[in-house]
């Protein structure tokens, strides 16, 4: 898996994190912190779960990429208003990229294919979920239109095609699948059926 | 420690997580995610802290068990309303089982007995705490009747009896102790004394 | 790095955690849990990220120190009202100590100097951030006067001076820098410039 896919995912998520920080009115430190947490949170969780060395500890370029995405957003926002839905679209690219690179790294560590797909989901969604929890919100992954399902579909497609097709086809098809599902869900407000239990005495 | 105790704890916590997701009105993905997070969260934290391989990474049966508990709950809830307090009672079984298996695993990694009891507490409570934080709630562990104390008592009993009694006696007495304390606290609304500080200028 | 600096940081953060628990009206277990989580949370995250053995697992004295700080606070609060700003001042000492010991440990594991400074920031702030999230609050690190910046400045100063000055000078200057910046910010309400984005259709 080429390193620029990882760095691209970090940059997309870093920009999305900085936009989220701006919507919360955080200061410059908060913007950079949200950019870094959103950019590397999912991959960090993946590496901890796999017992792998955490990907940004030995390579300061990764955190620099996330911070640069955040700083560029901070500066650009003084001149241009981010267009409608821009955060969610940028976020969709980060989601789709991270889902496939996360699944690929898990396969490289010998994970079962089903676990590898879950690790793609984790890599794609945990950074944004930590950011949302830190902002005092229920994570988008539990609120928004088909979101985690898109990451899981992209990662699962990659894992399924991986033994049968030459690189980079599984990577491209996996990323395209995740991105297409997420963008379609976003633009057409597609949701999975809800499950609602009522029970007054419990929380 | 037989593996079915671990899987039993995962299943109980998975069901409790799915009921919590239903009370939040999450979709099918959210139900399965809450089932898995509640089911494996505590054991994952235990394994990360111990430096052990994370228990569900190499064995997809674990996640499958949590997801199956969640799916069964999702389906069953279309026909039967979960009875009053059902989530807390199911949760109490997960708590008591996980407290003992968590402490046992920590002892196996050479942890000090006091740390092993704490690891039982962590294993029993962290999954539910992550689920509560993701739902935007203060974790039950800090709000409910004697809860963490039950996990700690169960794990501590197991750790104390472990060098003196043959298996499976310490396991059974430890699980029974944790379960009895938690259920008594639940049905008689027992609480520890509260600590209240007033100080207007700080949060 | 002498071990009493680590234990001192744990004790300061444990007291600050117990005061926070008191303001939330938690019970005795909650006070001890908040003391331990605030006391060891940052160092735990540091050790997980570095792939180091978690510092309190093999040494029950660490958790005992945090719990003792919490218990002493719980008892003392029955006689004396903690003075105004006491929590934030005690917290500042924990922040400054942990920033330097965290950066030092990261350097010892061969981290890049920039990553070591970030690890100082993580060690100093993550315990309090977990405590705040568990209390249902946005972490102080994103709300308060210059806070993370103080930790980063202290850790960065230590990392920069470390190759050039003999011990314990870099340690003392690093701790002093972090503490001075945090206390000045606290007493003069200094803030970094805020970044505010408006965009009605996103969260």
Can you describe what's shown?
3 copies of one chain form a homotrimer. Chain A is mainly alpha-helical and 203 residues long. Chain A has 8 helices and no strands. The first copy, chain A, has helices spanning 3-23, 28-50, 60-76, 86-108, 113-134, 140-143, 148-161, 169-188. In chain A, helix 2 (28-50) runs antiparallel to helix 5 and helix 7 packs antiparallel against helix 8 (169-188). The longest helix of chain A has 23 residues, at 28-50. Chains in contact: A-B, A-C, B-C.
Short description:
Three copies of one chain form a homotrimer. With 203 residues, chain A is mostly helical. The first copy, chain A, contains eight helices and no strands.
Q: N- to C-terminal separation of chain A?
A: 44 Å
Question: How many β-strands of chain A, per DSSP?
Answer: 0
Task: Report mean pLDDT of chain A, rounded to a whole number.
Answer: 88
The radius of gyration of chain A is 17 Å
The most extensive interface, with participating residues per chain, is: A-B, 33 and 38 residues
Listing every helix as H and every strand as E from the N terminus to the C terminus, the arrangement of chain A reads: HHHHHHHH
Query: What oligomerization state is this entry in?
Result: homotrimer
The amount of helix of chain A comes to over 70%
> β content of chain A, as a range?
under 5%
């Amino acid at each position: 898996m080429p390193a620029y896919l990882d760095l691209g995912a970090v940059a997309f998520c870093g920009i999305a994190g900085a936009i989220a920080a701006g919507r919360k009115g955080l200061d410059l430190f908060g913007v950079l912190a949200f950019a870094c947490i959103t950019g590397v949170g999912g991959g960090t969780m993946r590496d901890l779960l796999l017992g792998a060395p955490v990907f940004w500890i030995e390579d300061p370029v990764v955190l620099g990429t996330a911070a640069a995405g955040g700083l560029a957003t901070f500066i650009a926002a003084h001149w241009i208003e981010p267009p409608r839905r821009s955060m969610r679209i940028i976020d969709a690219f980060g989601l789709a990229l991270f889902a496939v690179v996360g699944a690929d790294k898990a396969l490289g560590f010998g994970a079962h294919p089903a676990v590898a797909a879950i690790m793609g989901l984790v890599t794609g969604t945990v950074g944004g979920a930590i950011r949302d929890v830190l902002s005092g919100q229920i994570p988008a992954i539990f609120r928004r239109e088909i979101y985690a399902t898109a990451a899981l579909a992209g990662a699962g497609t990659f894992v399924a095609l991986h033994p049968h097709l030459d690189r980079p086809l599984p990577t491209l098809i996996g990323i395209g699948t995740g991105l297409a599902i997420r963008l379609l869900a976003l633009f057409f407000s597609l949701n999975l059926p809800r499950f609602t239990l009522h029970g007054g005495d419990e929380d």
